[in-house]
C-alpha cells in the first residue's frame, strides 16, 4: 500500500474572537489519495472552508494536529517552505473567481507569471505554456484571448482562467472550495466536467468543498460530512448515499432538492460556535437523540459495517460518529426515527 497523498490527523483550528474562542475545526481526520476526489460537505459554518485553508496555513489561527503531505507535516514547515507548497504542489480554487485574478494585468500575463514562478521556463516558452493552459481549460481561441483582462471574461470563463492559474504550478493537490457555487447551473456542470477531465489526466488529488450534496454525488469518490467542526460521518460516495448512518447525514439528504419529499431544511439552528453543546454536537437538533447523546465528547468515529471486511460494500472507511453505532445501542433503532432518502450516484450505474 502506498501512502496517501494527503493525510490529515486530528486537525484543530481555534480563533480568538471577541465573544470567545471559536473551535472552527475540532479534531478532523481524513486521507486523500492521488487521483481521488474527496468532498467536504455540511451546513454553512461547519468548518469546511477553514479546514481547506488550514492545509496550507492560510488561516490566522492556532493550528494543531498533523497535515502530512509530500513526506512532511505542513504544520511544522517554515513560512518559506509553505510559500513554495502553496504556489506549486497545492493549489487553491475559491468560490469567487473575481478575487483570484488581478484586474490590472491581462490573464495571459498572470498565467505566464505563474508558469515562470513554478516551472523551469521563461519568456516565449512560458507564454506558450500559458496559452496551452488556457486552451486546456476550454477558453476558445486561447492565443487571441491572452492579452485580455479578467473583466473581459464571463463568470464561467473567469473560473476556467482561475483553474488554469491553479494548474500553472502543476499541483499534486487541488483544493476547490465551492468552485461552482457562484456560477449558473449549465456553467457549473461544464466546470465540474473540466475538473474531472483534468484530474484524470494529471492524477491530482482534489479536495472539493460543497454544501450541495447533489454536486458531491457527481464529483466525489469519498465524502467527509462535517458539522460544527467535527466529522459526523465519512465514507465512499455510494456508502454515504446508499446507507447514510448519521442522522445529520440523513437530514442533509432530505434537504436535497428532488429527493424524497419537498425541500425540508434541518429543523433548529446551527450551534453557537463559541459555545458548542456537550455530547454529540448535533444532538439538540437530532430527532433520534437519546440521553447518551447529551454528555461527554463527540462519539468516536466507528466502523459503519463491522460485519463486512470491505469485501461486499468495498468500503472499510465508512464510519459514523453516533452513539447508535456504539456497543450500547442498536443502530436499527435509528431507521425508525429518521427516514432515509436515496439518491443516484455515479457509481450506481456500473
Ligand atoms: N477568521 C475567523 N475568525 C473567527 N471565526 C472564524 C473565522 N473564519 C471562520 N470562522 C468561524 O469558523 C466556523 C467555520 O467557518 P467555515 O467558513 O469554515 O464554514 P463553512 O463550512 O465553510 O461554511 P460555508 O458553507 O458558509 O462556506 C464558523 O463558525 C465561522 O464563523
Ligand atoms: Ni465555506
Task: Provide the spatial order of strands within the biggest beta sheet.
Answer: 6-7-8-3-9-10-12-11
Summed up, the helix count is 12
- Radius of gyration, in angstroms, nearest whole number: 21 Å
Strand element count: 12
> From the 3D coordinates, which CATH architecture of the largest domain would you assign?
3-Layer(aba) Sandwich
CATH domain fold name of the largest domain: Rossmann fold
CATH class of the largest domain: Alpha Beta
Mean pLDDT: 88
Helix content estimate: 25-40%
- SSE sequence, one letter per element: EEEHEEHEHHHHHEHEHEEHHEEH
Short description:
The protein has helices at residues 48-55, 79-89, 97-100, 107-118, 123-136, 142-145, 155-167, 185-202, 213-219, 237-242, 247-254, 332-337; strands at residues 6-17, 20-32, 37-41, 62-69, 72-73, 90-93, 173-177, 205-209, 222-227, 230-236, 302-303, 319-320. It has 350 residues and is an alpha/beta fold.
Explain what this protein looks like in three dimensions.
It is an enzyme of class 7 (translocase). Keywords: ATP-binding, Cell membrane, Ion transport, Membrane, Nucleotide-binding, Translocase, Transport. The complex is composed of two ATP-binding proteins (NikD and NikE), two transmembrane proteins (NikB and NikC) and a solute-binding protein (NikA). It is a peripheral membrane protein. GO terms for molecular function: ABC-type nickel transporter activity; ATP binding. Helix content is about 30%, strand content about 20%. It has about 350 residues and is an alpha/beta fold. The protein has 2 domains: about 5-220, P-loop containing nucleotide triphosphate hydrolases (Rossmann fold, 3-Layer(aba) Sandwich), CATH 3.40.50.300; about 220-350, P-loop containing nucleotide triphosphate hydrolases (Rossmann fold), CATH 3.40.50.300. The strands form 2 sheets. Strands 6-7-8-3-9-10-12-11 form an 8-stranded mixed β-sheet, with helices on both faces. The chain has a 4-stranded antiparallel β-sheet with strand order 2-1-4-5, covered by helices on one side. It starts with 5 loop residues before the first strand and ends in a 13-residue tail after the last helix. Mean pLDDT is about 90; it is low at about 340-350. The chain binds adenosine-5'-triphosphate and nickel (II) ion (NI).
Amino acid at each position: 500500500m502506498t501512502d496517501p497523498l494527503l493525510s490529515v490527523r486530528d486537525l484543530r483550528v481555534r480563533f480568538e474572537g471577541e465573544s470567545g474562542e471559536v473551535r472552527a475545526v475540532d479534531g478532523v481526520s481524513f486521507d486523500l489519495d492521488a487521483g481521488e476526489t474527496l468532498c467536504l460537505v455540511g451546513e454553512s459554518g461547519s468548518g469546511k472552508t477553514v479546514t481547506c485553508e488550514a492545509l496550507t496555513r492560510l488561516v490566522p489561527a492556532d493550528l494543531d494536529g498533523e497535515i502530512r503531505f509530500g513526506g512532511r507535516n505542513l504544520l511544522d514547515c517554515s513560512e518559506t517552505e509553505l510559500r513554495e507548497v502553496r504556489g506549486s504542489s497545492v493549489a487553491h480554487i475559491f468560490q469567487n473567481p473575481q478575487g483570484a485574478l488581478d484586474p490590472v494585468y491581462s490573464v495571459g500575463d498572470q498565467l505566464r507569471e505563474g508558469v515562470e514562478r513554478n516551472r523551469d521556463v521563461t519568456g516565449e516558452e512560458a507564454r506558450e505554456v500559458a496559452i496551452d493552459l488556457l486552451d486546456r481549460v476550454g477558453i476558445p481561441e486561447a492565443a487571441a484571448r491572452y492579452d485580455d483582462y479578467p473583466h473581459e471574461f464571463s463568470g464561467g470563463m473567469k473560473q476556467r482562467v482561475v483553474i488554469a492559474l491553479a494548474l500553472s504550478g502543476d499541483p499534486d493537490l487541488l483544493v476547490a472550495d465551492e468552485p461552482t457555487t457562484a456560477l449558473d447551473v449549465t456553467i457549473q456542470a461544464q466546470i465540474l466536467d473540466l475538473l474531472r477531465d483534468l484530474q484524470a489526466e494529471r492524477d491530482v488529488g482534489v479536495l472539493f468543498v460543497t454544501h450541495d450534496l447533489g454536486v458531491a454525488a457527481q464529483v466525489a469518490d469519498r465524502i467527509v460530512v462535517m458539522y460544527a467542526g467535527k466529522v459526523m460521518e465519512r465514507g465512499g460516495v455510494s456508502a454515504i448515499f446508499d446507507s447514510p448512518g448519521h442522522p445529520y447525514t440523513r437530514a442533509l439528504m432530505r434537504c436535497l432538492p428532488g429527493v424524497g419529499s419537498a425541500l425540508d431544511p434541518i429543523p433548529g439552528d446551527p450551534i453557537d460556535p463559541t459555545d458548542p453543546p456537550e455530547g454529540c454536537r448535533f444532538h439538540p437538533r437530532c430527532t433520534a437523540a437519546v440521553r447518551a447523546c447529551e454528555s461527554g465528547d463527540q462519539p468516536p468515529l466507528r466502523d459503519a459495517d463491522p460485519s463486512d471486511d470491505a469485501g461486499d460494500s468495498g468500503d472499510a472507511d465508512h464510519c459514523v460518529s453516533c452513539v447508535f453505532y456504539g456497543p450500547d445501542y442498536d443502530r436499527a433503532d435509528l431507521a425508525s426515527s429518521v427516514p432515509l432518502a436515496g439518491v443516484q450516484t455515479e457509481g450506481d450505474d456500473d
